[in-house]
Amino acid sequence: MTQQTAGIHHITAFVTSAQNNVDFYAGFLGLRLVKKTINFDAPDVYHLYFGNEVGSPGTAITFFPWETGRRGRVGGGQVGYTTFLIPVGAFSFWEDRLKKFGIEYSRVERFNETYLQFTDRDGLQLEIVEREGGPASKWSFGGVPADKAIKGFGGAILYSMAPAHTMDVLERLMGLTRVGEENGLVRFKAHGDLGNVIDVNAEPIPRGAGGAGTIHHIAWRAVDDQDHQLWQQRAAQSGLHPTDIIDRQYFNAIYFREPGEILFEIATDPPGFERDEPFEALGQKLMLPEWYEPRRAQIEQGLTPITVRVLEEDK
């Protein structure tokens, strides 16, 4: 059987204010801050992970908040829209919630589904869709009860600079199935029940610019280390020049840039975010890999304190 990814593992983006980021994704969207750590390659910057109650693969959106960083421009070579999945029957709750918080949005029809499209405080393009698939979140926070909570990713819209080549990678390497085409988008599906619906522009999109309000990379799921090593081998055989396997503490990762200029990562499902914190304490303490522990005091001093809090609109 051909190797196939189950879908999206996580998506990582650039933003500015760490507190604004927490307020939007935990306070407004109701996701759980499951890990508060640092960018291992730039330890003066947070790396914040939000997801369901444990940040399961297929639910985790992660951020590098850089308050003095430049603003980005959404365009080719990026994920254009990140799609969140909600339970069937929760659509009106989320539309009302957007209105309650004064967030501008639009309704969009695509492949016989209705989406709510909006942006976060940095201009990151997001959308919400309801579907039957995927396990329900058990997390509730602020004004978002568990039965209306985001389940995880529904998928994403990829903005490719070379869409025919990007689609070839999705089909031939990642094992997704082409299922339709409509209004300039081609739809692919993975076999998993979260993060499994990927739309790609049929015509090239001009290059974007990285920075706040844009996606840094999209990560795909590998079952385990053995599966991960095979992905690395196959990516290399496909001429995509994957990196060495990198230990990211909560998963192992490889990276490569596909021909449409989007940065792809493949990440292992295990070990997960409970590796170094118990369930009840997830996201509360700054967690550092052991090689940064000697610098903890210096690192903590350089980071702006953040608080997960119920927002005024929900009080």
Automatic annotation (TrEMBL):
Xref: PROSITE patterns: VOC
Sequence ranges assigned to domain VOC in this UniProt record: 7-131, 152-269
Entry-linked Gene3D superfamilies: 2,3-Dihydroxybiphenyl 1,2-Dioxygenase, domain 1 (3.10.180.10)
Listed CDD domains: PcpA_C_like
Superkingdom of this protein's organism: Bacteria
Pfam families membership: Glyoxalase (PF00903)
Database matches in InterPro entries: Extradiol_RC_dioxygenase, Glyas_Bleomycin-R_OHBP_Dase, Glyas_Fos-R_dOase_dom, VOC_core
Keywords tagged on the record: Dioxygenase, Oxidoreductase
Molecular function, one GO term: dioxygenase activity
PANTHER family xref list: RING-CLEAVING DIOXYGENASE MHQE-RELATED
Full protein name: Putative ring-cleaving dioxygenase MhqO
Source organism of this protein record: Brevibacillus brevis (strain 47 / JCM 6285 / NBRC 100599)
High-level lineage: Bacteria, Bacillati, Bacillota, Bacilli, Bacillales
Gene: mhqO
